[in-house]
Write a structure and sequence with these properties.
Largest sheet: 4 strands, antiparallel
Helix content: 55-70%
Number of helices: 8
Order of helices and strands: HHHHHEHHEEHEEE
Structural class: alpha+beta
Length: 209
């Protein structure tokens, strides 16, 4: 605290107004609980600032910020709500929310759809645990391909043997290479409980929007 504290609070106030306006602008991309959790951060911090101005000896600002961030982490970053339990990658709900965000922002991305044409055959002959193991192997490999790429990307499982790979860099030649790597893997036999099985993949990629 010192003579420059007023300027610091002024900058913080501008930042807070910007944050609130951004939150209101994109509120449709959030669930009700997520919106409330993010919105609560502002009054909690304002209350802490007011208390500390009235009682400077109470160092409460950092504590209030920690509480607000804890609420955000618990309500927004809950892994069980984001990750598909079968594949280990982002689930269909996250994919739909991400596509909505992409269209609203008008950002161009490249999308690869990876389908398994004979997935129903696997469903008819494999147990649930064996089928989940197969889907998990595919999800793990797609995540590995994602890590090897220099551009930002995400992998989603849309159920029934359909995966989506979103590359946030609008580079079609690079996307073609990624699709080729995925196809090369999908054409290999996959081993489920000592049984080798052959997938029939169908892959398409395009620019969106």
């Amino acid at each position: 605290r010192g003579p420059g504290i007023g300027l610091l609070y002024l900058i913080s106030g501008i930042y807070m107004l910007y944050g609130i306006s951004y939150l209101v602008k994109y509120w449709k991309l959030l669930t009700r609980n997520q919106f409330i959790a993010l919105l609560c951060m502002f009054p909690i911090n304002l209350a802490a600032i007011g208390i500390q101005l009235l009682a400077p000896s109470l160092l409460i600002e950092m504590f209030a910020t920690s509480i607000a961030l804890l609420v955000i982490v618990i309500s927004i970053q809950a892994p069980e709500k984001l990750i598909d339990q079968e594949s280990g990658v982002f689930n269909q709900k996250v994919y739909l929310a991400e596509m909505q965000r992409i269209f609203r922002m008008g950002k161009k991305v490249n999308i690869i759809f990876v389908g398994i044409q004979n997935f129903k055959d696997f469903q008819s002959i494999l147990t649930y645990s064996s089928l989940s193991s197969m889907v998990k192997q595919i999800g793990t490999q797609l995540e590995q391909i994602k890590k090897e790429n220099r551009y930002g990307s995400d992998v989603f499982y849309l159920k029934n043997g359909l995966f989506a790979y979103i590359s946030y860099e609008d580079n079609m030649s690079f996307t073609k290479k990624v699709a080729s790597d995925i196809h090369e893997y999908m054409m290999k036999s996959i081993k489920i409980k000592q049984i080798e099985m052959k997938m029939r993949p169908r892959i398409c990629y395009f620019r969106c929007p």
